Amino acid sequence: MRIVKLNENTKKDLLSDLLKRSPNSYGEYESAVSAIVNDVKNRRDAAVFEYTKKFDKADINKDNIKVTEEEIKEAYDTIDPSLLDVMRKALINIRDFHQKQVTNSWFDAKPDGTILGQKVTPLEIAGVYVPGGKAVYPSSVLMNIVPAKVAGVDKIIMTTPPGADGKVCASTLVAAKEAGVDEIYKVGGAQAIAALAFGTESVPKADKIVGPGNIYVALAKKAVYGHVSIDSIAGPSEILVLADETANPRFVAADLLSQAEHDELASAILVTTSEKLANEVSKEIDGFLKELSRRAIIEKSLENYGYALVAESLEDAIAAANEIASEHLEIVTKNPFEVMTKIRNAGAIFIGEYSSEPLGDYFAGPNHVLPTNGTARFFSPLSVDDFVKKSSIISYSKEALEKIHKDIIQFATSEELTAHANSIKVRFED
């Protein structure tokens, strides 16, 4: 792992490197994605079935695109019972956390007949995309479905690519059923996003699409945004560990590697005030690499986007963490809660040496769908709020409007919107 002194130049170079991983940097794929999206929009089911045959080698048609109860029962018979038990424990934590995010409609009535408020309404249909193939993550199934369920969404539909045999991974099906999915369809890639965005003869149109995917999925979500809402255009995974000399180098090394194994584009960054710790972490990483199964991916990830930045002071380290705005931020310092109060930008913050990142991925309860590529500066984790919409409520009595009607007329007239002014004036004509 490269160890460099933290200064304005090294920070600038790092931020430049990290931005190269953004889906917005892969414009050469956009034309291919756009062609698929438009084809599905125009030819609907026929295009979906053709792309599924082409990319997933599966013979899918209107009779077998929807997962049946028999297929779900078979998945339950197949899955390891101990894994199912763990899923159910995690579900309790995830559900409990998200139930605390629920907001209710509110109304403020005044004696003069004025009523103002906000009406909170769940979305009607939410579409959840789940990757297939080598990337099977039942934990993400739980994280995307549960907040929609807690929000009160009427119908939650899931799409996921089938194998060549036309089947869906058992753990994916079981996780979806446990979380409360309503319908599951066997379609993946950009064609699945287009099907959810526009609807086909078989796949219902969704109001919002959430869930992770490869570059084609990310660009397809970008292409359909506006026709439908999306959660975000996610980039590769990332972790930043903010540590001082009190940190355990073995723990820090293990946590950095937990994200580096995701993808060759994943980033793992240590920002520390201790050069000694940086060197010890680097040695621990070398030791772990000899025994980890995804060594080739990890080595490539660290070669491209692995850094140990040595800061002059804790204040400089905190400033760097805020500028990088990492998806996952671990704070392993002498006074981690004090440091946490100075963090402005991070998707999820893990405090203390026993709060490692995988705790959040699988079990603690907060959502693991997080902003990436510096977007934690203005985006938040997936939540119940993503599955509701808010309408303003305005009701005035004649007496309440009469008190301020001349003010409104003056404001509208100043903007030369005479029809606006007239709409108020006609109510108080002699």
Descriptive key words:
single chain; five-stranded parallel beta sheet; alpha/beta; globular
Tell me what you see in this structure:
With 430 residues, the protein is an alpha/beta fold. The protein contains 17 helices and 14 strands. It has helices at 8-19, 30-43, 45-56, 69-78, 81-99, 138-151, 170-179, 189-198, 215-224, 249-260, 275-289, 295-305, 314-324, 336-340, 357-362, 398-414, 418-425; strands at residues 2-5, 106-109, 115-122, 125-129, 155-160, 183-186, 208-210, 229-230, 238-243, 267-272, 306-310, 328-332, 348-351, 388-395. The strands form three sheets. The chain has a six-stranded parallel beta sheet with strand order 1-11-10-9-12-13, sandwiched between helices. A five-stranded parallel beta sheet has the order 6-5-4-7-8, sandwiched between helices. A three-stranded antiparallel beta sheet has the order 2-3-14, with no helix packed on it. The longest helix has 19 residues, at 81-99.
Give the secondary structure arrangement, pairings included.
Blueprint: E1 2-5, H1 8-19, H2 30-43, H3 45-56, H4 69-78, H5 81-99, E2 106-109, E3 115-122, E4 125-129, H6 138-151, E5 155-160, H7 170-179, E6 183-186, H8 189-198, E7 208-210, H9 215-224, E8 229-230, E9 238-243, H10 249-260, E10 267-272, H11 275-289, H12 295-305, E11 306-310, H13 314-324, E12 328-332, H14 336-340, E13 348-351, H15 357-362, E14 388-395, H16 398-414, H17 418-425
